[in-house]
Each structure stands twice: as C-alpha cells, then as structure tokens.
Amino acid sequence: MERFSVGETLVYDIHGLCRVREIKGMSFIKTEPKRDYYVLEPITGATSLYYVPVENERAVSKLRRPLTKDELDEVLSEVKDEDYRWIENRQLRSEVFHSVLAGGITPELISLIRCIYCRKEELSERGKRLSATDEGIFSAAEKLLNEEFAFVLGIEKEKVSEYISSYFLSKK
C-alpha cells in the first residue's frame, strides 16, 4: 500500500486537492485503540478536514498524487471528438456520471463536462435548466478538473479552459 508524507499534496476522491496536514494517532470510539490517520485539508482553504485511516487499503486507494503535465496532456490527447451521449434515464445517468467523477482526471471526465455543458446550452435555448443533480455533477467535475490542472500547470483556475482549448486548437 502506498504511503504519503506530511506536506504532500494529493487528490482525495471527489473532494479534490488536499494537503497532508499531519499523520495522527486517533480513536473516534473510546473503546477502540488509536489508529494512524492522514489528516487532509483541502487546498481551497475550506475549513473542513478529512481523516483517512493509514492502514485502510480501501480508504487509501481513494488518495492519489496529482497527474504530471505530461499525463494531463496525454489525457487530453485521448479525448474523443464524439460527444458523450446524454442518458435520458435520470437514475442511470446519475450512476454513470458519479462513476466517471470517481475516476479522477480522465478523457471520460472531460467528455462528461462537455456533454453536460452542451445539454445545459440546449436547455437554455428552450428556456429550461439542468436538474439540480446534473448541475451538481457538472460543478463537481469542473472543480476537480480546474483544481488539478491549475495546480499541476501553475496557473489560475480561470485559465484552465483556455489551456485546454489551446491544446485542442494546436492539434488540429
């Protein structure tokens, strides 16, 4: 199982970029012995903390190091031109979209963002809006993408879409 160090920046599942604040022995139940936890703080300045048991393989598997610039560019190169198909069944769509979100920065995540954005534009033209669930998934996907790209590339989050657009324009 992979080990992480205090001060290291990691991606924690759908929560995004976090810094390992400390590794601390704790017990959340008085009758159980202390266990070591990674104490993670979001780099966005949010006040919440996440506690991930160091020896819990399933929980630690949700932690990963951010991709490198080359890996980000590789993800972009794998994005297909065809659109992600909109799933009409709301329940199935939610399950598929959450599964893509949990996968981290992948070509599917970028396609998902593009799919929801196109749907949002289509609905807007008809005077309608996305459902709250779809809007939430769209926001979470954009947050994950923008945070990691900005961190890795050393740019502002607002410049990420410009970077992605220029990448695709340079490949034409």
Describe this entry's structure for a reader.
With about 170 residues, the chain is an alpha+beta fold. The protein has two domains: about 55 residues, Thrombin, subunit H, CATH 2.40.10; about 100 residues, Up-down Bundle (Methane Monooxygenase Hydroxylase, Chain G, domain 1), CATH 1.20.58. It has a five-stranded antiparallel β-sheet with strand order 4-3-2-1-5. It starts with 8 loop residues before the first strand and ends with a helix.
Keywords:
alpha+beta; Thrombin, subunit H; 45% helix; 172 residues; single chain; 17% strand
Give the termini separation. Answer: 41 Å
User: Treating each run of at least 4 consecutive H or I residues as one helix, how many helices?
Assistant: 6
Number of domains: 2
Radius of gyration: 18 Å
Order of helices and strands: EEEEHEHHHHH
Helix/strand structural class: alpha+beta
Biggest sheet strand order reads 4-3-2-1-5
Point out poorly predicted stretches: none
CATH class of the largest domain: Mainly Alpha
Q: What about the largest sheet?
A: 5 strands, antiparallel
